[in-house]
Amino acid sequence: MIIVKFVYLSQAVLTFRDSMIYSLYMNFSENLKNIRKEKKLSQQELADKLNVAQSTVGMWESGQRTPKIEELDRLAKTLKITVTRLLGQKHVEITKNSVLIDGEKIDITELNATDVDGIVEYINYMKSKKGTHPKAPPPKMGAGAKKVLIIDDEQEICEMLYSFLVPHNYKVFLAFNGQMGLEYFEEVKPDIVLLDLKMPDIDGVEVLKIIRKVSEVPIVIITGHPEEVSEIHLTGLKIEGYIEKPISLKAVLNSLKHIVGE
What architecture is domain 146-260? Predict the structure, then answer.
C-alpha cells in the first residue's frame, strides 16, 4: 500500500490526487473498522466526534464511500493515529521538487502534470513484480491527454479500465458510486464520462439527469442490460452510446477514439 502526503499542491499534484486517490484506499475500510473497535468506539460515537452522520462511517467501513483527503486527515486526528496506519505501510511524500519514498529523496525537479501518472504506474509495476524493476518506465503522457471519468461501483472494472487506458494517453479518474462521480465531475471537468447504470446510492440514470442539467459532455453508458438504454433514449437524455458488460477493452478504446480522439 502506498500513502501519498501532499505537501505542495501544485496543479500537477492536484491532477495526480484526482486520478489516483481511490487506488490508494484498498485496505482502508477494514483498517478503519478494526481501529475503531480497538478504540472501543461505536460507529455512532465516531460519527459524533467527526460531526458526520453514522451512515457515513458505515459507508466508509463497508467500502461504499471513500473519504476525501481532508476527511481522511480529520479522521486520523480524531482517532489519534497516522494516516499511514489507516491506509497502509509505505509512505510516499510529494513536495514541490522531490519525491520521498520512506524518507529517501528522489529528485523530480522536472516533474510536470503528465509525469505523475507515470510515476504511479511505475510504482504499481514494481509492486506487482515484488521489487523487480521494469525495463523502462511507462511512456510519458502527452500534454493534450483527454480526461476520462469512470463512474462504476465495480472496483475491479474501474481498475482494469484505468490500467488499460492510461498507457493509451488518457487521464483516467475513478469514482466508485454516483455521489463520488458527481463530485469528481464538478472538480475534474472530464472530456467524457463512462457511466454505470446500476449503483447502490444514486443510480446511473439519476447521475445522467444531474449532469445533463449543467453539461453536454459526452456520456457512454456501461451496462449489463442493453434494454435499459432504450428507456434512457425515451426520456430524452442525451448519451453517445453504450458498452455492454462484460466489457470489451477494444470497444472502450474505439469508443473513446471516435468520440474524443486520442
Answer: 3-Layer(aba) Sandwich (3.40)
